[in-house]
Amino acid sequence: MSDVSVVVHHDAEVLAEAAAARLITRLVDAQSARGHASVVLTGGRIGTAMLAAVRRSPAHSAVDWSAVDVWWGDERFLAPGDAERNETQARDALLDHVPVDPARVHPMPADDGDFAGDPERAAEWYAAELAAATPGNADAEVPEFDVLLLGVGPDGHVASLFPEMPALYEERPAVAVHGAPKPPPTRLSLTLPAIQSAAEVWLVVSGEDKAPAAKMALSGAGPTQIPAAGAKGRHATRWLLDDAAASKLPPGLDRRATP
Ligand SMILES: O=C1O[C@H](COP(=O)(O)O)[C@@H](O)[C@H](O)[C@H]1O
Q: CA of 36: how far to CAs of 53, 100, 107, in Å?
C-alpha cells in the first residue's frame, strides 16, 4: 500500500497549525492539478482545532473554497445543529467562515425528518450520496478523496469505527454504528474500505492518552484491535502527532519536526 510517514510536533497547538498549513497546501496543489479538491473531515478536539487554524491562517485565501468538496468520516447521530455534531463543530470552526459552495458540502444526516430514529437509512443515504459523486466511474462507490482526516481515540478508534465492532468488517462505504463506547452511542461512519480509497489519509493525534494506541497502530497491531491500524491511504498515510501522543513510539519512528 502507501508510504507511511510520521511527523511529531512539540505540542497540540503547533500540531494544529502545522497540519492546517499542510492541508491548505494539499488543497491548493489538488486545485492546481485538476481545478477542484476534496477533503474528508474528522470530528474530535484536534481535528476541530486544525480547522480553526485553517481559518486563522491568511494562507487559506489561496484555496478556492467554492471548488472544494467537503465530506465527513463520521458523525454523531444527533439532532440538526446539536453542538456535539461533528458537522456543527466544523461549520463553527471553518466552514461558516469561508466561501464554500453549499452544494459541495456533504454532511452526514442528522437524527431528524426522514432519518429520525433510523441511522441505517441515514447511512444508506450517505452511501448513495458518495456513489452519486463519482461521475464517469459507474463502478466506484466513493469519490476520489484527496485527503481524508482522522482523529484517533485512546482505544484506537478512527471515525466511528471502534475496536471489535461489526462495522470493522463492513464492505459498504457508510454504516450505522450502535452502542459506541464513546457517547453518543449511535453514530454514522465511513468504513475501512471507504477510508482506504482516499489518496492520502492523515491521522492527527494529540495527547498522552493516545500514545498507546499510536504505538500499537504503528507497531503491527491489526485493525480489529486498533482500527487506526487499518487507516491507510492509496498514496500516503501520514501520522501527525504531538510529543505526548508520540511518547510511546518505538525508536526510529518518532520523527520530530521541531526540537
Ligand atoms: O467521537 C469522536 O472522536 C474521535 C476522536 O476525538 P478526540 O476528541 O479524542 O480527538 C474523532 O476522531 C471522531 O471523529 C469523533 O466522532
A: 22, 12, 19
Q: What is d(CA 122, CA 32) in angstroms, rounded to the nearest whole number? A: 34
Mind listing the domains of the chain with CATH numbers?
A: 3-144+158-195+214-237 (3.40.50.1360)
Q: How far is CA 119 from CA 76, 111, 123, 194, in A?
A: 10, 7, 6, 18
Pocket lining: 119 vs ligand 1, CB cutoff 6 Å? no
The x, y and z cell numbers of residue 139, run together, are 463502478
d(Cα 237, Cα 113) in Å, to the nearest integer?
Answer: 37
* 240 Cα: distance to centroid of ligand 1 (angstroms): 15
**Contact 151 CB / ligand 1 (< 6 Å):** yes
Residue 157 near residue 221 (C-beta atoms within 8 A):
no
Could you write out the three-class secondary structure of 178-232? CCCCCCCCCEEEECHHHHHCCCEEEEEECCHHHHHHHHHHCCCCCCCCCHHHHCC
Q: Ligand 1 pocket, 75 CB below 6 A? A: no
d(CA 123, CA 110): 10
pLDDT 10s digits, 156-178: 999 999 999 999 999 999 999 99
**Is the pTM of the predicted complex or chain greater than 0.90?**
yes
What confidence tens digit (pLDDT) does each residue in 103-125 have?
999 999 999 999 999 999 999 99
Output the nine-digit C-alpha cell for 64: 478556492
